[in-house]
Fold Reverse transcriptase RNase H-like domain-containing protein.
Amino acid sequence: MVREGIVLGHKISEKGIELDRAKVDVMLQLPVPKTVKDIRSFLGHAGFYRRFIKDFSKIARPLTRLLCKETDFEFDEECHKSWTLLKDALVSAPIVQAPNWDHPFEIMCDASDYAVGAVLGQKIDKKLNVIYYASKTMDDAQCKYATTEKELLAIVFAFEKFRSYIVGSKVIVHTDHAALRHIFAKKDTKPRLLRWILLLQEFDIEVVDKKGSFDEKVRLEEVKALRDENLPWYADIVNFMVSGEVPSSFDAYKRKKFFKDARHYYWDEPYLYKRGPDSIYRDA
């Protein structure tokens, strides 16, 4: 009985899914790229195994920029570091697992200034088994998105990428839930965000704050500390948007007015914005 074998460039065994080490050895022997064609060839070979490499797009960005027509080819130190990191990532690539349909899926999302990334996995026996790493660089327009929009973009990217795995199953999403809560609550959301929200409503999603209660506690204590040192007028609003806490000293009338006023503000850490009569958010 066959216990393991190479299938479509991957080694399949009872341990899980691995890279074909023979192909990796060939890539490790490639010389330093000297032309755009060399870069394209290397990225093509390495990209075949990108599901095993966390933040592949982020690591490879210095190399992918050399593929742009208007860019002069200059394989500098940053490019050499990127090339080396990708080769190291191939050598140390983990063994990923096939999905287990009896367990919920978990997705970890993140967004940087120029890339979004996601990890699909399942927690079995208190251990997270990685199924797939995915990432992509953002275009010029997406790079200009607000932090909240980038967080949601990362989630949408993950659900589109992993749809064939997760459709019909429960999905636990680890991300900044405060950002999601704000987007879903807005009634005047941009058409782009509405399309994203409609896409996500197709799935059975549970959102978990990846920052954890400790981080929220720290931020909450920082805001409370301000109360002892000439509390700024906006601290109560920021505290409410971060933790959902309303000042305990407020009576029923003040609470009602506070909730009414808070609807006009938007917190995108570390900035607070207020919506004006023209429905445009400006720095508060």
About this structure: Residues 77-91 form the longest helix (15 residues).
